[in-house]
Design a protein that fits this description.
Layout (H helix, E strand, L loop, with lengths): L2 H19 L5 H7 L6 E4 L5 E9 L2 E8 L2 E8 L7 E3 L10 E8 L2 E13 L2 E11 L17 E3 L1 H4 L2 E6 L4 E6 L17 E3 L2 E9 L5 E7 L30
């Protein structure tokens, strides 16, 4: 299991812990429980769509965002991020934050932050609640020098806008929900998504070593640096290759 996947799993666990242990009167907790229902989303473009360039880094889609008027920050576009993460890095350490409370997550102290303003291209998210992870509590980066991105965002964008990942052009195309889908005709295959805990899943069939086909639910995760992960408990009857090739880049 990679560090990234471990962090994603901890994020899901974090939201679960918040729901189970925190009081319901605080604004940030209500926002996290509801998928930022108290936040606002503003479409600033005069066009029906716009694009944002991204760069590849260790398998992550990295885009430029602004947080609380601090520009040129680097976020991973992560479709499996059920809540927005904001890391303490050398680029973010001076960003003003309205911390509502600190929460203990299995010995790691993270902050619930209210009234966040995040701008991605011509989209502005306001009154957003997100999770701030201090550098000394970050399981992914050990220090400022290793922190190559400053946070992760997924559901808070995907819940309100259509987003197309143009891998060859290294662009994200954003459009409003009311925009007619470009995925039509014989050039495209569309598949239904199910969303649980603000994480998207897709059904797929795998054949085990006995030739039996079984349906599985896979997380659609644009933040996963590898092609596929399998839960070892579910993959007990799957035959894996004994020979494989390793590439170095």
């Amino acid at each position: 299991m990679t560090k990234h996947y471990w962090v994603t799993a901890k994020l899901i666990a974090l939201v679960t812990v918040i729901l189970l242990t925190a009081g319901c009167s605080a604004k940030g907790i209500i926002n996290l429980q509801s998928g930022n229902a108290l936040a606002s989303q503003t479409w600033l473009s005069e066009e029906e769509s716009f694009t944002v360039p991204f760069v590849w880094h260790d398998g992550h889609i990295i885009i430029e965002v602004a947080v609380n008027d601090t520009e040129s920050l680097r976020f991973a576009f992560d479709s499996a991020a059920s809540a927005t993460l904001f890391f303490e890095t050398h680029r973010t350490k001076n960003v003003p934050l309205n911390v509502e409370r600190q929460i203990d997550l299995q010995g790691r102290q993270v902050d619930v932050v209210n009234d966040g303003v995040i701008k991605v291209g011509d989209i502005e998210l306001t009154e957003l609640t997100f999770i701030h992870v201090p550098i000394e509590q970050n399981p992914l980066f050990s220090d400022y020098d290793t922190a190559y991105f400053d946070g992760a965002i997924g559901y808070d964008l995907l819940n309100h806008f259509n987003i197309t990942v143009l891998y060859a052009e290294q662009l994200l195309r954003f459009s409003e929900k009311t925009t007619k889908s470009e995925f039509s005709g014989n050039n495209w295959v569309t598949l239904p998504l199910s969303v649980h805990g603000r994480i998207p899943y897709i059904d797929a069939t795998m054949k085990n070593k006995n030739g039996t086909k079984t349906n599985y639910a896979f997380v659609v995760d644009t933040g996963a640096p590898d092609s596929i992960y399998l839960n070892e408990k579910l993959a007990a009857d799957i035959a894996f290759p004994t020979k494989y090739f390793e590439t170095k880049t």
